[in-house]
Structure formats: structure tokens, C-alpha cells
Predict the structure.
Amino acid sequence: MSLFSKTKRCDICAVETPKSEIYTFINTHDFATHPKEQLFLCQGCFLHKAESYIVSYPHKALVLKPFTKAQKRSGPVEYYHFYVVSILKEYNFEADYIEKVKQLLATNSKCSRCNKSGQYFSVEVGDYYGIDTLANNPGAVSGEWLCPQCYNKEFSNIVTANNLVFKEYNPPISENGVLTNWAG
């Protein structure tokens, strides 16, 4: 494969895939308990790898659903990152927002679809401006608690139905946190 090739091999299944359809899976949030991992994956391998993290994650997360192409403000690049609550301030999240996230994640809840324990609070914010709405007026945005299996199904459906490709994806790991889109 030349430097200027328009394809890249998936690091798991080795299938040649157009570079524009390659997902970059990066685990860099917790070097102490999770090895650094950067993989270039086709959609099928990406969804399988993401599922392994989503269903084994033992904590709670506020999840802003991935933006569809119609909702993105600009450009083809999509980033979807997990931030643990304990370091949100380092990423310039406001103290009031962090406190609201902590309160939300401290609630006991059931999955709205299957009644198992809810770990993911899934919110549709619509676009990047919706994140500001969520931060400033969380009551104006509705969501639902989902168990890991139901959240994984929702996430996979959004990715495949909208043909989303994440140029960077960080999975939920290590403690309570927020999984969110951000503009590159």
C-alpha cells in the first residue's frame, strides 16, 4: 500500500477499506488501568469494539447522541469522546454543568426500554448549540435512561442508519462521565 493509497486495512479484520470510511478508535483516558490503544477499523469491527466497552462499562454516563450529518455544523470530521467527571474542569466545562452532571449520574434509574438497571442517560441535543442548551438549562432537553445493551443497540443504529464515521472515538471507561460530540 503506497503512502497515497485511498484505502487502509482494518487493524482487526485486515479488509481494505476506503480511508474516508475508517474509524479511529482511541483509548487514552486512563493509562493506569487501560492500555493505550489506537486502532483503525472498518465499521463492523468498530461497532464490535465499541460494544465491548459499552456493555462492560460498570459506571454511569450522560450520553449526547451522535450528530447525524444533517445536524453537524461544518465539515466531514466527527469526534465522539468520553470525558470522566473528575477531569471535566480540565476541558473547560463549567462548574455548574459538572455539578448537574454529577447529580444526574447519582440517581438510581431503570432502563426505559427493558427495565434493567439504567447506566446511560441518552439525550438528543440536535446540534452543537444543543450542548449549550443542555449545559445552561438541562430541564429543556429530555432524555432516557438505558441499560448497556439497549444503549449499544441505539448507538449502533444511529451510526449505521446515518453512515457516521468517527475520526476519533474514545469509549466510556474507568468512572462516571460524559460521552459527547465535539467540533474539530
In short: The radius of gyration is 16 Å. Residues 137 and 176 are 21 Å apart (CA to CA).
